[in-house]
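Lab notebook, bench 4. Still working through the backlog of constructs that have no structural model yet. Next entry is a single chain of 378 residues. Request: give me the structure tokens for it.
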Amino acid sequence: MLSAGLLRNSFKGAASAAPFFPTLLDQMPNAIVVFEAENQQLVYVNPAAESALDLSRKSLEGQSLHNLFGDNELIKRMIEEIKAGHASAQRQEMVLHSLPGSIHQESIPAHVVVASLEDPSLIMMEWFPIDQQLRSERDERVTQQVEANKQLMRNLAHEIKNPLGGIRGAAQLLEFELPEKGLREYTQVIIKESDRLQNLVDRLLAPHRKAHSMELFNVHEALERVRSLVLAEFPKGLRIIRNYDTSLPDLLGDREQLIQAVLNIAHNAAQALSEEIAQGIAQIELRTRVARSVTISKQRYKMAMDLHVIDNGPGIPEDIRERIFFPLVSGRDGGSGLGLTLAQTFVQQHQGFIACDSRPGRTDFQIQIPYRRQEKAL
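Model written out:
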């Protein structure tokens, strides 16, 4: 983190010279904002903060810190300590949440520094995300989980499919021998249930069997397909917001697999929004951005597609949040528990990662898939 002392002289009289802030801060990799001590109105935002908040300096300057991160008690206490002169700097690890409907819509686990400046009317806040280490640990767990899932699928194929074939065949033979037609209803139950279990196993094994169909394709065209499919099933009460970065390059991958992965997530979201749909306030946001210098499964990539599927539903039940990508885990009565497992498998097959941040009123599924072969041309 920066030393606040390096910045004190730079911000001497800064409130009256906002257009002439030193270029030093513009070059810093960590997000930095400077705000007035009394009303906490932002007077300076560096490019790293613009990127972290996904908002321009013009739209941020003049906003209050409260509009960004809500009523954060930790930040408030740190500011009060600085204003009271008890310390020149305060440091704390925290999650920077935003208010519903505020201009910033992310939750950022971060290391935060609040520091005084030479001008006592100004305070600086600096932060950097601490999710990289958490993501690395999570990626390792996910990789292990996917491998365990694959082994589970193979075991299911061996332990279930062969006996099912025998059961179904025996039921068909028995059906021919039964004298009464009414009794054949029971053999039909056996046959149909055997077919249902066979279909379940086939669906579990499908992503591990199918070969990739790799091609360059427009991600937004794929998302438009998802959007139209979801709205066809939920035509009233649901709004799907397009928040696309049109500068996104074409992605090298399996177009149909990406459509299926995003459709599984969006469809789950729409089903979870039943109450909001009835009230006419349900919404799902499809957001795309370019992520730069990302690390996925300990591999560094120059660029990646960053895709978010965000809904304003009740959130994922707390008791299954850590297990939502496991096979056969579902938060909905009648759900197969396969949608997110398949989505995770498809994304993993593209060397990407999928994660979820959920709380009441906001569930955010994030998918990152690296640009690999295109990197030399970019």
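Notes after review: The chain has three domains: 4-129, 133-209, 214-377. The longest helix spans residues 131-177. Flag for follow-up if needed.
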